[in-house]
Every structure is written in structure tokens, then in C-alpha cells.
Amino acid sequence: MGSTSEIGASIIEAGASGDLNQLKAIRKKVGDEWEFRKICDQYADFSTGRNVLHHAVEIGHFEMCKFLIKNVQVYVDALTYKMDTPIAQAAKGGRVKIVEFLIEHGAKVSLANIEGFTALHYALLRGNLELMELLLNNRAPVDAQCVDGTPLQIAVSRGNVEAVKSLLSHGANPNIFYAVVDSPLVIAVKSRSFECLKLLLEFNADPNLYFNGLSALSAAARDSDTRFLKSLLAAKADPNLLHKDVLKPIEEAAMVRNRAAMEILFPVTKRLAHYPNWTVDGIIEYIQSEEFAAMGKENMIMLLTKLDIGGMNDACNKNFYSAIIQYRKATNLRPCNTTWISKLSMWEARLGIKTQALLGAQKCITLMPDLPVPVRGEIDAAANVIFKKFLMASLAFCLEPYNKDIGHSFGVCLFDYFVWLTQMSSPDEILSII
Q1: What is the distance between the alpha carbons of residues 104 and 41, in angstroms, rounded to a whole number?
Q2: pLDDT band at residue 373, thresholds of 50, 70 and 90?
Q3: Hey, what's the signal peptide range on this chain (predicted)?
Q4: Structure confidence by residue, pLDDT tens digits, 85-117
Q5: Contact between 114 and 147 (Cβ < 8 Å)
Q6: Per-residue confidence (pLDDT) for residue 17, from 0 to 100
Q7: What is the Cα–Cα distance from 164 to 198, expressed in whole angstroms?
Q8: Whole-number Cα distances in Å, 348 to 22, 255, 342
Q9: What are the structural domains, with CATH classification, of the chain?
Q10: What is the value of pTM for the model shown?
Q11: Angle made by CA atoms 228, 211, 125, in degrees to the nearest 5
């Protein structure tokens, strides 16, 4: 019939076009059942890595999927170059029947691609409640992190009340917000989904959860709809939390001249000594002054310095999780600071948080495309070796992220590379090449 590569190309063509008769004819001509299955499993698009099952799933050809899985017995968890499985591909297309069939034949619902997306994330991005319930009932990881956040964060950001209710009922944690820095409560306020906010509070979301300078109460103080503010205060959100480096909710309201919110907050907010006139009008007047602006700039510098020093101290004491939190705050306040991004990626690699470490590395390379760089006019030969090892390890990891040995090698290379990067004599030396 031709070479193995020609057979593989014909199989891919049949899958992409949905021609089941052609696929059966190819199988008959190959003759050897084991050889045909091997070709179906191994041959894929050069550009995407999708094999024949991925193609059948993508176009929603249920009969072809049945033929490949039941008759040919292809591998149900094949990966594309981006690590999407057939079940993820089916979820992305909203193919409920195919997802159900794949689950019945052993497909894993927990596998994530290189950006952390699982089938459940894709179901929520489509707003497909039937598919979401199917996956949750088959133990899809409810708190899985991707670059867009957890399934709960995605559902809240879209104001999908039924999805939020279902996720919380299946045990979703309303206080997780690692990849996306806004907590679900803050997202509910920002997306103006009052019903989602009420649900989160009913499921014990922490109204005082604070990260990166913004609590749910601070976000609500900026919104003209005071229902958010009143509900959070009723849930015991504290307008006087002692964070010296951030604005109090009443100050957030004053920044946008939200008088209605200020009048609610004023009776429950303790007086701040640096305001000469502690009234609603006095707070608004002072917060618009040059004196306040200068103080805010100074406070930001102090905060960033504190985060940097605190993060390094935590890392030196091998408290890497705390170091990650410190540098995540810093990089969200200064998203183009490659020194801090590199440190964050380094600690993530040490803890085996591979997806986030890799994304951080990619961001560093995007911001600094010429790395490794000349240091004081001379090429650092050792840096070149380290950098090449890092790139090769990253590639191997991308192609096979579930191989423990490759994952370990990637972590080691990433750590070595960023140790070199952060040991350059000064941040200015790094930034000077951008």
C-alpha cells in the first residue's frame, strides 16, 4: 500500500475529513491489526501533534471514535504537542456523547495540558453544564489550576451561577486563587455577579482574604452597586484590617468618589491619623491631593522592597511556598520585572509546580529575547551551556510532562539557569539590555 509514513498520512487525512469508510479500507489493506493500531497511535499532524483520534473527536464523529476505540483499540489518552488529550479536545468542542464514551473506555479526566487546562476547564469555558456535571461525577479535579485559574474562578468570572453552585457542591475551595491573583469573591465583585457572591459566602468563602492589595471589600467599595458592600460587611468583612501598605476600603471608595459606599463604610471605619479632616468630604479632598500621591508612591516602593527581601529570606530558609507568595505579589505589582519573574519561576521549579515555572521562564525569554547576554562586554560561556541545557530540558518536559525523570531534569536545569540569572551583579545590568 505504500510506506508507513504514507499510510499514516492517509489515516490522518481520513480522520480529519471524517471518512470512516476510507479508514476501514486502509485498515483492511494494512492487514496486520497490531501494525494498524500502532500507526494510528503514533502518526500525527506535524504542526499540532493531533493523531487520528484527536481529529475524529474534534469534528464530533462519534462512529469513527467508536471504531477507533472499540475495534482498533487505540490509546485513549494520546497527547498533542500542547498535551491536550482526546477527552480534553472533546470537551473543548462540547462533545458530551464522545466525552461520556471516552470515560467509559478508561480515558483520564484529570490530565492537564501545558497551560494547566483540563477537560473541566474547557467545559466551563463553553458554559456547558451537562458536560461539567458529567466530568464532576467522574471525579474531575475540581480545584485544578490553569493559567485562567481554577474552574470556580472561571465560572464566577462568567457569572455562571449554576456552575458555581455545582462546583461548590462538589467540594470546590472558594478561597483558592493561585494562578489568577483575584480570589473568587473579588472576581464576583469585579464581574458584578451578586448571585455568585452570595453563593460563595454561603459556602464559607473568607470575606477578609487579602492578596496583592485588594480584598473583596476593597473591590466592592469601588462599585456603585452597594449590595456587594453590604453583603460582605454582613458576612463580617473587616474594613479596618491592618495592612499598612494598602488602602482601606473607604479610601478605595474615595479614589473613585463613590459617596454611597463611603457613607456605608464611614461609621465602621476607624479614623486614620494622617487625614486632617475625618469626614466623607475631607477624605475625598485629601485623597486627591499631591501630598497623598507622594505618600502613595513612597509606600509602593517600600512594599516592593519588603516583598523582595521577604521572598529571599523565605527562600534562604527553604520556605519556598512563602517565597512564591511574596514574589507573586511583587510580579503582579510590577509585571515586567524579569528579576522577580525569574526568582518566582525558580522557586516554583523547586516545588515541582512545572506549568507555572515553565510559563514564567517563557515570560522571561519574551521580555529578554537575547538571553544569555554579554556581561560587561564578554560572553559568559558557562551561561550559554546552562541556557542550552535549560532549553533542551524545557522541550523534553513539554513533550513528556508526566515522565518523572524528565520532570526532575527540567526542574534542575531551570533552577541552575535562574540561579545564574539572579546572580548577575545587579538588576540594572539585566534591565539595560531590554
Answers
A1: 19
A2: very low
A3: none
A4: 999 999 999 999 999 999 999 999 999 988 889
A5: no
A6: 93
A7: 11
A8: 48, 36, 10
A9: 295-431 (1.25.40.10)
A10: 0.74
A11: 70
Mean pLDDT, the chain, whole residue set: 83
| Cβ–Cβ under 8 Å, residues 360 and 342 | yes
The bridge status of strand 374-375 relative to strand 378-379 is: antiparallel
**CA–CA separation, 126 vs 99, rounded Å?**
14
Amino acid at 161: V
| Residue 176 Cα to chain centre, angstroms | 12
- Residue 28 to residue 36: CA distance in whole angstroms: 9
Residue 253 is placed in which grid cell?
471608595
Read off the pLDDT band of 321 (50, 70, 90).
confident
Asked if 345 contacts 362 with a C-beta cutoff of 8 angstroms, the reply is: no
List, for residues 229-263, the tens digit of each pLDDT value. 999 999 999 999 765 556 789 988 998 899 999 99
Residue 99: Cβ within 10 Å count? 29
| Residue pair 1/17 in contact by the 8 Å Cβ criterion | no
Detail the DSSP E strand segments found in 222-334: none
Spatial CA neighbour of 287 closest among 300, 299, 277: 277
